[in-house]
Amino acid sequence: MANHYHAVFVLTIAVIGMVGAAVVPRSLLPTGDTNVPMNLTADIVLRDGYYLEQHQVTTADGYILTMFRIPGSPANPVRQGKNVAFLMHGLLSSSADYVISGPGRALAYLLVDAGYDVWLGNARGNTNSRRHIFHDPDARSTNFWDFSWHEIGYFDLPAMIDYTLAYTGHTSLHYAGHSQGTTSFFVMASTRPDYNKKIRSMHALAPVAFMSNLRSPFVRAFAPFVNQLEWIMSMLGVNEFLPSNEMMILGGQRLCEDESPFQEVCANVLFLIGGFNSPQLNRTMIPALLENAPAGASVNQLVHYAQGYNSGRFRQYDFGLTLNLIRYGSVRPPDYPLHRVTAPVALHFSDNDWLAAVSDVRELHSHLSNSIGLFRVSDPRWNHLDFVWGIDANTFLYERVISFMDRFN
């Protein structure tokens, strides 16, 4: 088993090197702002006939984030006063997660059709949010990537939520997040507890906070080497993990399309990440999924998760003994004060999720003071990625999420 993990670790490093060397300039949207990167989310929403708005917000530490608003559709016209639903993606992904499955299946569209004003967030560093008032993400030496999911929760979510509420005139909204979209929420709600009153209900899809029991071979492989990985990346000047680029997209299209003999290999790579559930993966959709993900992230986001797996704690980034003393006043980083999370939270989990183990979700639940409850997906094979890409996510999950949101209106 140790040799297997070592092989996966070496392969991961090799992939990072190849992808990093293949970065090419990104094309641009045909708008007046030539700094706005090409966006898969916009292409999908407009193709599917839903109304779309694009918004930018600048965080307190200078990151310029792109959000997308779907205020209505021909079947449910735009009108004032709709209740707001804010959706946040997971690690290495983007807002496209919530529309890529198409009308009748994707959560964003189902919410719009149910009468909600839907806003899609994008974390710093992904393909939609690669701008900063000072730092260049593509520079060889840059501070742009000096963040983990802590900063996404502490700065990005508050900025996007405040903008959304100010723009719509509401004082609170519904929140749904997948994977890292749940992690960052718990960072925000515990370290900036005033934001709890701005949340009508929170729906954690495959919640990730405590991680000591996860089964993903990728995380289990590199977690023991996380300190060495962090040092190597720093020495090489590599701060971005798996950036999106044209070579990755073309590779996904050629190798994973319906006619390709390698399509099943592509499917199994996805299963190795989140768990095996073949009936729920639309293989025809794999090239589009790989156009969306990986969408870019910082190395520190991966490192922070690995630290959580190693420590068994949900706590802030570990900078090492000296920097921890300077930043936190202690040799170890502090745990997130989850008792401060007072927003109503529903935890949606599954038995076959390799990244959000049932026991870890239950541990999270025990720390929440205002939980709506624990809700298991009835499909015993439901995996981590099925929460956003599963063929039957509507019937297994989304109908329940929307009914809970309706209850808290």
Automatic annotation (TrEMBL):
What UniProt keywords apply to this chain's record, in alphabetical order? Glycoprotein, Hydrolase, Lipid degradation, Lipid metabolism, Signal
InterPro entries named in the record: AB_hydrolase_fold, AB_hydrolase_lipase, Lipase_euk
Q: Where is the signal peptide?
A: 1-21
The positions flagged as active site in the entry are: 179, 353, 384
Q: Does the keyword Ligase apply?
A: no
Q: Which GO terms describe its biological process?
A: lipid catabolic process
Note the Gene3D superfamilies from the entry.
Answer: alpha/beta hydrolase
For the keyword Transport, the answer is no
**SUPFAM superfamilies cross-referenced by the UniProt entry:** alpha/beta-Hydrolases
Lineage, top-rank taxon, reads Eukaryota
Q: Which Pfam families match?
A: Abhydro_lipase
Q: Which residues form the Partial AB-hydrolase lipase domain?
A: 42-101
GO MF annotation, one:
hydrolase activity, acting on ester bonds
Q: Which family does it belong to?
A: Belongs to the AB hydrolase superfamily. Lipase family.
Q: What is the protein named?
A: Lipase
